[in-house]
């Protein structure tokens, strides 16, 4: 995935309305999870990503810092995230408990 062709989200777009259910892709451009919710705002925002499972069943929520997920729009306007973490690395993180 050539990330240079995508537009980073503006700070004003970093909201749950924009990001919840957005797919997150890993370093090999494979879908590794879905954003379930956010904690905080701006540069200190944390992104909670559901990893694994099927259709949200059996997935594990993990917490990533805002600096660990690049949030952007593709040419069609669809929002998604991209991270250097692999699915296996995320599965090894502690489960996020609200």
TrEMBL record:
Start and end of every PRC-barrel domain? 18-67
Short name of any one Pfam family annotated for the protein: PRC
Cross-referenced InterPro entries: PRC-brl_dom, PRC_barrel-like_sf
Protein name, entry field: PRC-barrel domain protein
What organism is this sequence from?
Roseinatronobacter thiooxidans
């Amino acid at each position: 995935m050539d990330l240079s062709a995508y537009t980073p989200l503006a700070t004003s777009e970093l909201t749950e309305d924009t990001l919840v259910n957005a797919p997150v892709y890993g370093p090999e451009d494979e879908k590794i999870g879905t954003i379930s919710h956010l904690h905080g705002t701006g540069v200190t925002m944390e992104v909670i990503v559901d990893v694994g499972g099927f259709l949200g069943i059996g997935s594990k929520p993990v917490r990533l810092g805002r600096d660990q997920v690049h949030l952007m729009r593709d040419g069609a306007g669809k929002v998604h995230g991209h991270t250097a973490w692999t699915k296996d690395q995320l599965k090894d993180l502690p489960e996020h408990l609200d």
